[in-house]
Design a protein that fits this description.
Elements (H helix, E strand, L loop, with lengths): L4 H11 L13 E2 L13 E7 L2 E10 L5 E5 H10 L12
Antiparallel strand pairs: 1-3, 2-3, 3-4
The structure holds zinc ion (ZN).
Zinc ion (ZN) binds next to loops.
């Protein structure tokens, strides 16, 4: 299970564009990098199983108050696979 940093940005821009922190109302979230490969997001195996495969979480952190917001990585992967990047172009980071 892998999600690249660019894929995560694409997902959050397209699906959760106007999601400000529900505690402090800031709108900047930090996506955690994988320690060994900074092109990948750091995903946390949660031990639970969905459809026979282990589930993973991606935690976003509010850069203002530190609130942790958790997304199921498999759900992000499904969306990314169903909505491939047209033309393989780059998108601007947030
Ligand atoms: Zn916050």
């Amino acid at each position: 299970m892998q999600i690249t940093f660019d894929e995560a940005v694409r997902f959050f821009v397209a699906v959760t564009a106007s999601s400000s922190c529900y505690v402090c109302k800031a709108d900047k979230w930090e996506i955690p990098f994988h320690a060994e490969n900074n092109k990948l997001c750091f995903l946390i195996p949660v031990g639970a199983r969905q459809g026979g495969v282990g589930a993973h979480n991606l935690n976003l952190e509010c850069t203002s108050c530190g609130l942790i917001r958790t997304h199921r990585a498999e759900t992000m992967r499904e969306w990314l696979d169903a909505n491939p990047l047209e033309g393989g172009g780059e998108i601007e980071s947030v």
